[in-house]
Amino acid sequence: MRRALRAQLLAWAGVCGLTLAASAWAASFDCQRAKTPNERAVCADAALSALDERMASDYQSALTRAGPRKSAVAAWQRDWLMAGDISSCNGDQPCLQRAYTGRQALLARVAPASAPEAVWTGRWRKPANGARTPGDSDDELLLVGLSGGEIAVSGAASWVGGDTANSGEMRGIARVVDGQAHFDGGGCTAMWRLRSAQLEVTQESGCGGLNVSFQGVYRRR
């Protein structure tokens, strides 16, 4: 009886120890509520938890630097968590390490509000092409200016025709040359420039399905 009770107590202590360790390791979210494979992997690994903690700190610093346009940086971070490279890791440790390391490097480059690259930062929108009905989403380019004359890009566009809807996306890094942004990634190429308070996409190819186009004039949301 005493031996059985001791075994139960040791087992209970082990479970509590794992729970406490997990809670201590992850700083940016509550491990008691971890549900996704990525969250559980971070809570179970001290090295991943340290990366998560560092990224949370880098993210807060990026928000501070962005100043009045920090809402665009926040939206950019949410988009990365939902649809960026980390979203396909499914708890795989090497994948998560690469995703965290790459993200930290980008967050460290978010341009301060006073830098010339910051003029691009924002959520830019235009009506989607095709037949539209109330409730249809707009095309959007989510841009974050980075030090070194570059722009982080996350965009979505669509075309609606009757019962058919096609979509496209633009995700990666654009380079600014002579006041014009040049994007080339995953077979998608585009160019855009600022005109007064508007963003004009002047060229675009290979960024979506049939009739989908990012070309047009966008206004900052």
TrEMBL record:
Keywords of the record: Signal
GO cellular component: extracellular region
Domain of life per record: Bacteria
Keyword Acetylation: no
InterPro entries assigned: Lysozyme_Inhibitor_LprI
Signal peptide from the UniProt entry: 1-26
PANTHER family reported in the protein's UniProt record: LIPOPROTEIN LPRI
Name recorded for this polypeptide: Lysozyme inhibitor LprI N-terminal domain-containing protein
